[in-house]
Design brief:
With 573 residues, this protein is an alpha/beta fold. Helix content is 23%, strand content 30%. It is built from 12 helices and 30 strands. The chain has an 11-stranded mixed beta sheet with strand order 2-1-9-8-10-11-12-13-14-19-18. It has a 6-stranded antiparallel beta sheet with strand order 25-26-28-29-30-27, covered by helices on one side. Helix 1 crosses helix 2 and helix 4 packs across helix 5 (179-191). The longest helix is centred in the last third of the chain and has 16 residues, at 494-509.
Length: 573
């Protein structure tokens, strides 16, 4: 493994242990953390005795606690698994690997007090296996990716050679549990002795406060966050971040233009993969082509894209990439992207490209994007998730059936009938994770009603603020609650709407048994099989206002009172 060049940022030389005790190493608008505090926290973890012979998994949403634990575990020689979340399915997967779970996991292992107070060594070996990250899961189950300290260091150094950081804090809108947030948002700050942010800056209002109160060297972001920025500069301060960086998913051109105009900073978009890290960059406001980073070699032989980089496990070998590219120039290496090369499946004995199917669906009028996947329990038949323009999406049973029929006729010109999608879900936009990825698990959740006939089809989720959420839902014709309500003209019973509303409230607000009573309960119009509707949940001082409405009017109006409701004697049940 190559040693870092003199003067390049380094993780192996542990710059977090060097400098003055009072140096600010992390901050927020109101809080400062010093080097002495960080060293003390690192030393505690480095001297804590953990079960021998087992790897550890770390999940902590707090950047300060996460950083202290990660660095301390490195100094103790541990390889650290970093899952993207702490959901039950993820926890079960980690437990099957016999990992010691640390941080914000349910029933996480509580470390005993440190066995000593020895100061960590100021150097770490570049070949040390540092982290195990996971693929995004966009084309299958998330798979582990093993990274050494030297590989992480090489990526940080590449960023710094291309875009040296100016003075100020590095703030991130992306979780450090994912490769982009970890390397660009946290490790780069540590390696270059820049302060890192004490919060994940999720909302535009919070970002405006940060820019107003502290100088920002770099804003590490992704398409979901940048697409959420306001359209006007009202409320945004004049102080701009040094640069804006976006990665993890394609950034819409309109969002890039808006972000640069709003914040007055250069926006750099990074292309890469979980397996290879960062590969290339571009200024999306100025160019559609990508330019390879200076330590990356790319080759295209017509069918395959081949990659070499010292940040890969075998830096002297060519590694095949899953994306098709078309070279624009060789010096420097510039290219355009042309879709993924993998995801070939068999349906009823016939081979079909899921990417090819999705590509043809995108050519249909009104379609903005499409993704195809296999639905396991149906014998591997294909489901399609289709993002459509608002004026093209179906709102009732008849228009939905007509839309599906037209789509199937459109696809039948290029594909055999047996491989065409059997299940269709129409959305305004793809549900994506914090990195802007539509993972297979998230896409599969759109088809959960196939496994549970008590549920509607949960489709779009739009969160205007932390206290207001809008969820698009669709009523399956085979919904269990329709049975008996009523023969010849089925409608969704009101009790089912109430149950779904409480279920979604608990899921989105993370609160169970927090509402003691229902008020202002109304069912103005029936909801029918095939109807598409929107459930809106708005929280006010602990109470919750809920409506369900479709193109035919209101179907539910309800208020849930919190456990300590404000007195309101004027309401009737």
């Amino acid at each position: 493994m190559n040693q870092p060049r003199y003067g390049e940022p380094s993780l192996t030389r542990c710059p977090w242990l060097s400098g003055e005790a009072g140096d600010i190493v992390a901050l927020s608008g109101q809080k400062r953390r010093t080097r002495s505090e960080l060293i003390r926290a690192i030393r505690g973890w480095a001297n804590t005795r953990l079960p021998t012979g087992r790897d550890v998994a770390l999940y902590d949403s707090d950047p300060w606690r996460f950083t202290a634990a990660l660095l301390g575990l490195w100094h103790a020689g541990h390889r650290v698994w970093l899952p993207g979340d702490n959901l039950p399915e993820t926890v079960n997967h980690l437990r099957q690997r016999d990992l010691v779970l640390l941080g914000e996991f349910p029933q996480a292992w509580a470390p005993p007090p440190p066995v000593s107070d020895v100061m960590p060594e100021p150097d770490l070996p570049p070949e040390q296996e540092a982290v195990v990250l996971f693929t995004s899961g966009s084309s299958g189950e998330p798979a582990p990716i093993f990274r050494t300290l030297g590989q992480l260091e090489a990526e940080v150094a590449a960023f710094e050679r291309h875009w040296p950081l100016t003075g100020g804090v590095v703030i991130s809108q992306v979780s450090h549990q994912h490769t982009w947030g970890l390397t660009a948002g946290l490790l780069r700050a540590l390696a270059t002795s820049h302060p890192f942010g004490l919060e994940i800056v999720t909302w535009p209002e919070t970002l405006a406060e940060w820019l107003m109160n502290v100088p920002v060297s770099a804003l590490i972001s992704s398409p979901p966050q940048l697409s959420r920025l306001p359209e006007s500069t009202t409320g945004m301060p004049n102080r701009a971040p040094g640069r804006i960086f976006s990665a993890a998913a394609p950034l819409p051109h309109e969002a890039a233009v808006q972000a640069e105009a709003l914040m007055g900073s250069e926006l750099i978009e990074i292309y890469g993969s979980s397996e290879s890290g960062a590969i290339a960059w571009r200024r999306p406001c100025q160019d559609t082509a990508w330019q390879a980073l200076d330590d990356v070699m790319l080759h295209c032989d017509g069918e395959r894209t081949l990659l070499r980089s010292r940040r890969l496990p075998e830096p002297e070998q060519w590694h095949e990439q899953a994306d098709h590219i078309r070279l624009v120039s060789d010096h420097p290496v510039r290219f355009t992207l042309h879709g993924r090369a993998d995801r070939i499946v068999k349906v009823a004995g016939k081979r079909v490209s899921l990417e090819g199917l999705a590509h043809h669906i995108k050519d249909f009028p009104g379609v903005l994007d499409a993704r195809c996947l296999t639905i396991d329990h149906s014998g591997g038949r294909i489901g399609a998730v289709v993002a459509m323009a608002s004026d093209s999406i179906a709102h009732d049973h008849d228009t939905r059936r007509a839309l599906i029929s037209d789509l199937r006729q459109h696809l039948a010109r290029a594909f055999e009938p047996v491989v065409l999608p059997r299940f269709w879900r129409f959305v305004h936009r793809f549900p994506v994770n914090a990195q802007g990825k539509l993972t297979r698990a998230m896409a599969r959740h759109l088809f959960d009603d196939l496994d549970d006939r008590r549920q509607p089809r949960w489709l779009d989720l739009e969160s205007a603020t932390p206290d207001q959420h809008r969820i698009a839902l669709e009523i399956p014709e085979r919904l269990a609650a329709l049975e008996g309500h009523f023969p010849g003209r089925p409608i969704v019973p009101g009790i089912a709407l109430i149950h779904w509303a409480r279920q979604q409230a608990e899921r989105l607000f993370g609160e169970q048994d927090q509402w003691r009573d229902m008020r202002r309960l109304r069912f103005p119009a029936p909801l029918l099989p095939g109807d598409r509707a929107v459930m809106t949940l708005s929280r006010q001082r602990g109470d919750l206002n809920i409506t369900v409405a479709s193109h035919r009017g209101q179907h539910l109006q309800m208020r849930l009172l919190g456990v300590d409701p404000m007195p309101d004697h004027g309401e009737s049940s």
